[in-house]
Design a protein that fits this description.
Blueprint: H1 14-19, E1 30-37, E2 43-46, E3 49-56, H2 60-70, E4 74-80, H3 97-108, E5 113-118, E6 132-133, E7 136-137, H4 139-156, E8 160-163, H5 170-180, E9 189-194, H6 201-207, H7 227-239, E10 243-247, H8 253-262, E11 267-271, H9 273-284, H10 290-304, E12 308-311, H11 314-322
Parallel strand pairs: 1-3, 1-4, 1-12, 4-5, 5-8, 9-10, 10-11, 11-12
Antiparallel strand pairs: 2-3, 6-7
Helix pairs in contact: 3-4, 4-5, 7-8
Length: 327
């Protein structure tokens, strides 16, 4: 048969396939989410997220060391406080759970890069992402509280802040307060295109952040909309976001692609708790090869255009990359 073009020529050996690989990944692009709780001696597995844990402050440094040993250089911290109130005041408290976690991390494991989630849902008694006006979140009155929280995180040692609340104007408010207080070099990674998703269920158990009434559809995005995701990303870049995030990841690969083509800043994707739980559950049943699916799913996110991947499989992916099984 007379064929000049034979694509299989470039698939003949492992060395050749790696040589011409289009999508390349590096473990430095991985971020590992972690949950911090009050108390002592706590390392409790999260039931809906096997292999993920709540850590009390005293055991946190050892957990950070495990992350470093696994080859991951960045973590994202989520705090679950004992005290919750209508305004989420413990979010910006000097002795808040995240503030103390940062202090411990910087003291005992300074080589890690610490990113903090900036939101109110873990800290409010009603579980919504800001202060309420009736039964809806008051956008403009929430902004100063988010800004105050971000500043408190940076002053406690955060290397980067990541607002996830989806209030209009939050990036500008955070950038302004950080700059006014001399933190001009601290980056902001914005949850820009964050959709109202059913994939967040396990996280809400892990973070004790489910809303006590209603839902978050008046501020998180409608998953039918793609153009709106690009609009949100462009607005956040204008307000000073240094990295743009799309969340969730696997069901929003098209959004990752569209955002990555629209902005001139790095794009992060958050492979969320529901994605992790589905893969983990199927693997535990023996229905799938966990490593193969984890690698394939992660590659699809990078292939779509992500530069940074936030994932509960970060430690495993770092190992697979190191061993040449992915990347």
């Amino acid at each position: 048969m007379d064929m000049v073009k034979r694509p299989r020529r470039l698939r003949g050996t492992t060395t050749l396939r790696k040589m011409v690989r289009e999508t390349r990944m590096d473990k430095a692009s991985l971020i590992y989410p972690m949950f911090v709780v009050e108390g002592k001696g706590i390392r409790h597995e999260i039931p809906s997220m096997p292999g993920q844990y709540h850590y009390s402050l005293d055991l946190l440094p050892a957990a950070f060391e495990e992350v470093v040993k696994a080859g991951v250089s960045s973590v994202m911290l989520f705090g679950i406080p004992d005290h919750k109130d209508e305004t989420g005041s413990s979010a910006w408290a000097e002795d808040g759970i995240i503030q103390r976690a940062l202090s411990a991390g910087k003291k005992y494991v300074p080589e890690l890069y610490y990113i903090t989630d900036v939101c109110m849902c873990e800290y409010t008694s009603h579980g919504h992402c800001g202060v309420l006006k009736g039964h809806d979140v008051d956008n403009d009155n929430t902004l100063p509280l988010l800004a105050r929280t971000a500043l408190s995180h940076v002053e406690a040692g955060a290397d980067m802040v990541a607002p996830s609340d989806m209030m209009d104007g939050r990036v500008a408010a955070i950038r302004k307060i950080l700059d006014e207080n001399g933190h001009l070099e601290t980056p902001v990674m914005s949850y820009a295109a964050k959709y109202a998703s059913g994939f967040y269920g396990p996280f809400r158990e892990a973070a004790d952040s489910a809303p006590s009434f209603g839902d978050r559809k008046t501020y998180q995005m409608d998953y039918h909309n793609g153009k709106e995701g690009v609009k949100e990303a462009l607005l956040d870049v204008e307000e000073g976001a240094d990295i743009i995030m799309v969340k969730p990841a696997l069901s929003y690969l098209d959004i990752i692609r569209r955002v990555s083509e629209a902005v001139q800043v790095p794009v992060a994707a958050y492979s969320v708790s529901g994605e992790y739980a589905m893969i983990k559950a199927a693997a535990m049943k023996g229905w799938i090869n966990e490593e193969a699916v984890v690698c394939e799913a992660a590659t699809s996110i990078y292939r779509a255009g992500a530069d940074v991947l936030i994932t509960y499989y970060a430690k495993e992916l770092a190992k697979y990359m190191e061993e040449g099984r992915i990347g």
